[in-house]
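We modelled the chain as a single entity of 489 amino acids. Its sequence is:
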Amino acid sequence: MATNVIIATMKLKLTIIILAIASVLHIAYVSANELPDLGDVSATVMSPLQEQAIAEQIMREVAVSDDVLSDVEVTDYLQVLGARLVANGPEKQQKFNFFVVQDRSINAFAMPGGVIGVHTGLMLGANSESELASVLGHEIGHVTQRHLARMLASQKTDTLKNIAGIALALLMSRANPQLATGAFTTVSAIGVQNQLDYTREHEREADRIGLQILDSGGFDVRGMPSFFNTLQRGSRFSEGSTPSFLRTHPLTTERIADVTNRVEQMPYRQVTDSIEFHLVRAKLRATYSTPDTAIGVFEQNIREHRYSNEAAEHYGLAVALLRKSAFAKLEKELAWLKKNAPPHAMIENLSARMEVARNNPQSAAAKYASALERYPDNRALIYGYAEHFLAIKQPDNAVRLVLAKQNLYVDDAYFYDLLAKAYTMQNKVLLSHQAQGEAYYRKYDLARAIEQMDLAAKANDGDFYQTSIVEARLKQLRQMLGDDKKPKS
């Protein structure tokens, strides 16, 4: 894992990593004259296990990146939307990880192993949920058709080591533009036309799969050509010229015509955007400017009736008011929402967060408890309630809550982070290190997971049963790391 160490040392942002991987794709397909068949060739170049290994490397970077949005309400919305689309796609068994990048540009990207990132700018730039879903469907199409494996097949790049080496070289060239000159000169010399033909074929295929997913998922297939129109007006949403999505997903006249023709042959379906779509976008808008600016915009929109969803506009105003600690006005907005908006966990969470901000622990606990009775599997409420218990020095309650809910999200690293903090407050050394080790494991960081589990095994405050579990888990993790170090065939 020397490559990972070097990359970590460089401390490059996730955005640079994304650009580097995109550059790998450009170099990999430059010499291809036609689209390879999907099947044995791509499978031998990059197996599903190899793709998953790359995906885990990417997710390790995602877990620690400041560029990735940590808001669980926004992330869960994207995960639910993505899962709905995957369930209606051609590869239902493929594992996908969706995450949100804090970036105002209109962009989304797919990477090996089903890793899909979506910029906040895309979520705000989409005019409907079907438009947003069309982009996710398109990216899912890139993954299920294994376009990266096809590209690598044309270059005979058949090992993870080679792939990692190319990625590292490109990462370094991004940090030092002088190093990039030779590589990009070579790309131009090989032949731009073949490169474009290849990428257009990929884009058409991803469009076709995306339309099928949209239709099967119950969305409006007209969201895809509508999004193309949004992109063509992209200068409205991003500073500069062309939207980022167009630079990595070339949009041609032929491609637009192909999608439009396909859509015209499909039945018309009028689809109403979900309330989550509106609330999430309002929350993003409320946090992307100063509180005073956001408050002014929301108040003006409400006053002039300029909105697609009135409840979301009031919710966005309430979020901005909480940021400013304007509690009197916030209470009025929450009262309006509870009277006029459809019941929703995001509104209940905002109400509880207001009590936390007002330093009213009893009221906050009551609101969290009541909300969880109505929405028992809502992660934002579980997180908030557990964090509240930790803040008021009640680790016993935090442990009980997390353990009661943990089976709902067995792969959620943050549940173990919360447990580790609570056990530390209880002076339970073994359990604290054990929980922290499980958190690192779910962040795809085996080395740190082993380190923490080793500390847990050496702790002297656990009983025989607890120590036995830790030692067995430590042995298992070490075997996993050993397997990781074995060369891939």
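As a brief sanity check on the tokenised model: The chain has a mean pLDDT of 81. Residues 369 and 418 are 18 Å apart (CA to CA).
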